[in-house]
Predict the structure.
Amino acid sequence: MRILGIETSCDETGVAIYDGGAGLLGHRLYSQIALHAEYGGVVPELASRDHVRKLVPLIRELLLDLGLTLKDLDGIAYTAGPGLAGALLVGSAVANAMAFALDIPVLGVHHMEGHLLAPMLEASPPSFPFVALLVSGGHSQLVRVDGIGRYTLLGDTLDDAAGEAFDKVAKMLDLGYPGGPRVAQLAAQGSGEGLGFPRPMTDRPGLDMSFSGLKTFTMNAIAAGPAEGAAKQSHAANIAAAFQDAVVDTLVIKCRRALKQTGLRTLVMAGGVSANQVLRSRLEQSLGQMKAQVFYAQPEFCTDNGAMIAYAGYCRLVAGQRSGYTMTAQPRWALTSLPAA
Ligand code: KG4
Ligand code: ZN
């Protein structure tokens, strides 16, 4: 079964084709970063309009590159949520129209399930059951995963998501958008030692997280530092490092706790923040000590992309699941409400 995957939930237009026998055949990504940069964040209406402009040409390019035609497709998967309503509707409309015209099945995929399954595209994929740490711009969750659609929520953020905190700190430091990679880059030039950043909610039991206090702490630490010149620059680098250390430590502590609580020895990390190199290496080091293994996707499949949607869609379409040609866009959608496949 050969599936076209379409991702348009936020500021990336992603398309990919996944084949049940040969694996991922190819993918294409168009990022809207330049479009939103001057506004310091994603402008939903501009995002929708750009998906309208880019999606169909991107699908055409991908098919051409692969030497395929529309007739070679056996199904279409698109991100049906969560995400920006207008942006989701573009992918949903194109996917449903194409599938209807081609008389092939179509399925709306959960964006976070796409992230969660992205590490399955790697050469040595994890096997079920495992604990997943989902860390993106909108989510920070720990989930027990017993199979596709067999998800138990273990912990969630009470306020900001980890990626959202990175983005807000980037704004405070005038690093622009997108924040995560820029904070990480600046952090590499500084040291967070001695700045006393807290590790939120690690002093009490449980797997829930909270990053908004850390954000306020960061704002105060910036205000308390030098106001200009080279001293301001090096203080900013130290703040970035201290903030990143605090987020990484907090996530590592929660992951260790989730593994202990479930008795599982496999952790899968997914979502945009899982591209963070410091998080990857500290998690590997720390979980290695407890004889647990960490899996994640290659960096380009950690952030939004079409490949993860094609793969998640494939897993469900091959199991016979279909949406019918009813256009779906669910800006809010709980991962735990999905059926098993
Ligand atoms: O999964 P994703 O691409 O989109 C959502 O589904 O939200 O995640 C985007 C988030 C942004 O908040 C971005 O700042 C963060 O992931 N991010 C990072 C890194 N790369 C992306 N955060 C920290 N370090 C990175 N290297
Ligand atoms: Zn995402």
About this structure: The CA atoms of residues 57 and 183 lie 33 Å apart.
